[in-house]
Amino acid sequence: HVEIVNIAGLEARVKDHMSNEKGAFGYIRGGAEDEYTMKENTAAFNKAKIMPRVLQGIDHADLSTNLWDIALKTPIIESPSAAQGLAHANGEKDTAKGVAAAGSIFSMSTYGSTSLEDGAAAAPDAPQFFQLYMSKDDKFNEFLINKAVKAGVKAIVLTVDSTLGGYREEDVINKFQFPLPMPNLAAYSEGDGEGKGIGEIYAAAKQGIVPSDIQKIKDMSGLPVIVKGIQSPDDADLAIEFGADGIWVSNHGGRQLDGAPASFDILPDIADRVDKRVPVIFDSGVRRGEHVFKALASGADLVAVGRPIIYGLNLGGAQGVTDVIEHLNMELSITMQLAGTKTINDVKNTDLYY
Ligand code: FNR
């Protein structure tokens, strides 16, 4: 087990533990430019307060929930992240196992260090998504999606906030290049990403993503498509109008547009606009069970974490990933009980105090 007092404390431990690959820690930790948005992501949760309710007869909290017909032990899921081989030799295979043990959802990134088939085989009975960075080449999109469908994923997460990489200065200073191949790319003919920088990797992706791409990916896959990287209510509307089956509110952990609002700040407006037409998934900056509570109370159905999962993977492999989710579960459970809420539905129906 990885001993965890709080999630924030993991970062320094990972920094010491991860001296193996040049710039790997900086790539994982970093945000764009001045990291204003990255810092705001976590700080913004402090603007909302949770009014404790007592005398509610609460003697335990039940964290179970579901997305469509997928039963989950927790509302906390894993955010897709690239190149997990940087953090651990077993990479995505261990993340998939660790997330499965926590009864949650793993999403394989297009830029994973593991093939999506191997990621799926590592946790064959657990729900998984495939995160797609669309290519300019629709044959490649189709090729990847066919593999994902065969591997049994439950949805495609279409990331739309990364038509190019944000300007991440730590990567510039470190001249960071992916030291490991990306088997999902290698399986086709685009090259495997090894030795390339982030700019070069994104350059092969489709820059001009348009709303009709959502339906295109739905038609190719026959699966629900969740659109990830939504930051404005108008875009949420547009995505739903063009077929999105889920809205994933995210600013990519502050790694893309510095100066964008904290993801939590814009969540209530987006949730209002979505108005329960499709599920809302939220990420960026979540480091506490209390943050999960506040996101659920602000309209999220599920809450995803990015860097904390990678840190757990680095420090303890699959078990470390499970430990991170279970630590957040523990904090969420305490928060729920002290707030006078017993179920995830109760949390969703809580009014925050501003
Ligand atoms: C990411 N993220 C990301 N998102 C995505 O859709 N595809 C990807 O390949 C990646 N890769 C990636 C790598 C690393 C190292 C990080 C830290 C993040 C973004 C990720 O899914 C998520 O939106 C953020 O990580 C959420 O913010 P927190 O929880 O890290 O603050």
From TrEMBL:
It holds the Pfam family FMN_dh. CDD domains: LOX_like_FMN. FMN binds at residues 80-82, 109, 131, 159, 228, 250, 283-287, 306-307. Residues 1-354 form the FMN hydroxy acid dehydrogenase domain. PANTHER family: 2-HYDROXYACID OXIDASE 1, S -2-HYDROXY-ACID OXIDASE-RELATED. One of its GO terms (molecular function) is FMN binding. Keywords: Flavoprotein, FMN, Oxidoreductase. Glyoxylate binds at Y27, Y133, R168, H252, R255. Belongs to the FMN-dependent alpha-hydroxy acid dehydrogenase family. The lineage of its organism: Bacteria, Bacillati, Bacillota, Bacilli, Lactobacillales. It comes from the Bacteria. This is L-lactate oxidase. Homotetramer. Its cofactor is FMN. It catalyses: (S)-lactate + O2 = pyruvate + H2O2. The active site is at H252.
